[in-house]
Each structure stands twice: as C-alpha cells, then as structure tokens.
Amino acid sequence: MVNVKSTSLGSLYSKFSSKGLFDMNIRGYIRNQLVDDKIRETLSKNRGDFWFLNNGIVIACEDFDVDGNKIALTNFSIVNGGQTTYLIGEYKGTNSEIFYIPCKIVAETKRKSEVPFPTKIAEATNSQKPILPRDLKSNSPEMLRLARMLKNNDIYMEVKRSSKKPKIMSKYSVRNDVLAQIILSMVNQIPGIARHSSKRIFESPRLYNSVFRVNYEKDGDKKAFLIDLIQLYSRFVNITNELKNSGLTPEQVSIMKNGMQIIFALLGVTYRLANGDVTEQELLQDKNIAKNRDFVYGQFVSAYQGDDIDEKLKRLIKDIVIVMTESYRAAYDNGITMSVNNYFKSDTYYMDRILGSFVNILSTITIGADLKAAMDIFRRFQPKP
Q1: Contact status, residue 214 vs residue 184, Cβ threshold 8 Å
Q2: Rounded Cα gap, residues 333 and 90, in angstroms
Q3: What is the pLDDT of residue 263?
Q4: Fewer CB within 10 Å, N side or C side of the chain?
Q5: pLDDT by residue (tens digit) across 222-260?
Q6: Does residue 225 contact residue 231 with C-beta atoms inside 8 Å?
Q7: For 247, left (φ over 0), alpha (ψ -120 to 50), or beta?
Q8: Which are the contacts of 199, defined by CB distance < 8 A and separation ≥ 6?
Q9: 113: left (phi over 0), alpha (psi -120 to 50) or beta
C-alpha cells in the first residue's frame, strides 16, 4: 500500500497508456458524466481532498522492488482505477498542485492456479455491485430533509437501496426514484423520460432539482400535494394489483404494467381538468398547455369526503388503460411503433398521440362521461371563507 504522486501517475499514463498500462483490466475507460465531472471538479478546485474522495488504484505486477520512496515495477498493469488514471492523465486544467492517490500494488509470489492472479483481482474489483447515480444522492441534505419531513407525516421513503424498513411500519411507503418518476409524469408531463431514464433523473441537475430541491416544508400547498401524491400511488398499486387478476384483457394488463408513468401523466391532466387549471377546449386547441402552464399544487385526494374514492380511481385507471391500448393499437397498425416499450418511452408519442386520444375521448358519452364523473376525487381542498 502506497501513496502515489499525481505527477507520477500522470507520467505513467503518458508513457504507457498505449503500451499495455491497462492490458490486465477487464474494461477500458467508460465515460460516466456524473462521476467524471466530480473527479474533474476535485482536480480543478480541491486537490487536497482527492485522497479522501477517491478509492484509488490497484496495480498488478510480476514483481516490484522498493528503493526508498521509489518503486520499480516489472510487467505491470492497472487492473482497477482506470477511470481515475485516465482523467488525471488527460486533465487539461490549470491546477498543477501535487496531490496523492492511494494505491495497492500486488505481485503474485507463487502461481497457484491456471487463472492468473491479476485476472482474479481485475474481475473482483471491477465486478462489485455498481454505484448508481441514485446512490450518490442518498446522503444529500435535500434527500435527508425530504425523508425526515415524510417520516413526520407517517410516510417511509426508501433512499438507499436494500435498506431495511423500520420495524414500526409507516402508513405509506415509496422509493425515492419511483417518487421522482410519478412527479415528473404527473406534474412535469414527461412520462417518457421518467420511464426510460430513471438514472438520468439523478444525473441531470434540471430534473433532480425539480423533484428534490423543492422546499416542501415551507410551502404548505406543495407539501400537501406531495403527501397526497404518495397516498395516490399507494392506492394505485393496490388497484392495479386487483385489475391484473380481473377487469382487464391480457393486452390491457400488459399495457397497464408497462405504462405506470403514462397513467400518472394522464391523472395529472385529470387533476388539472378537475380544478379548472386547464379546460377541455384549451387542450383540444393545444395539448402542450398541459405541460407549459404552471402547475397548481394543493391537497386533493385526502380532502375528498366520499367513501368511494377507490371505486372512482379504479374507473379512471381502467378508462385510461383503454385509451392507452387503443392508441397503441393504432400506432402499431400504422407502423409507427413495434413495441409497447418504445411507444411508452417517447414523450412525443405521449403528447401527440396518447394525450390527444385522451382529450378527444372526453367528449364521448361512454368513456368520456365515465371519466368526468370520477374526476372529482382530484379537486383541491378549498378552505371555507
């Protein structure tokens, strides 16, 4: 175990990057914008922190010889830490302050198996469960603050993967990535991005900030909406589990299972219609108004006084699934798409075709009338004057 000077590692990269420096690594440099940007930021601004913030590198070699503060390596290769080495070697910034990188140097003293020991090291150190962008945000102040606020309202938000749920169960629970998906679908009207780019939610400052860097605690309407949205999600899970067993055709069940984000996007439009934030006529003229007009937050499902909320929500979900199924069939028959997955991950298809079908069907005397009759569960709470 040694500390390697940044200048020494840079020199190693310059001399040997194209001459076998990474030959025993199981993969070359793989670009990861989130991680790369963090490393570059540390290189530019906080080099003194690099040792603490980086896992370092592992070098496998045939032999090494220590001479004071120098180490001579024989037949060596970096088997883990290629990304760190690449970014230090290719750094083009102005900060030239020397810093240190933790480094493990391993030489096999005796051949014990047919598989070279460096290969075992490379496989073991590079095959650990990958860190996801979501993981890197798990201890951020805004994430912890949001989890605490929800806990105070009897809601458990899973922030860390595979974390144990508390012994005392909360009334509702939701993963933070799923919460982000339903907010981006219902509020932002981008179900395609929410569905197929869940990693991007935690990588993109614009998407991440719009969900998690919102001061829900200080805005009573946003806080009430968020709590009700999680309640709505819990009811949605229970209802869709029921519908999988009865009430829908196999095709519709498949559409429903693959289309959670689309369903929440259309429930978001339903919410807007129920409160007069947009009108049916406005949507017929310009569907983009559902996305472009400012969203109005407030308490909704918990303010509903009737005892038929699940019945009405079930009707809404069934009707929406019917609309989605018909829209997909038409797109498939016309050669526009070949799979549900491709159809539902496109926000263009959602806005132009699925939302268009939904708005058009509102004027019918069958599904449209049924949808309108159930919309009142989304009306915001209006305090008495």
Answers
A1: no
A2: 51
A3: 97
A4: C
A5: 999 999 999 999 999 999 999 998 879 999 999 999 999
A6: no
A7: left
A8: 132, 133, 134
A9: beta
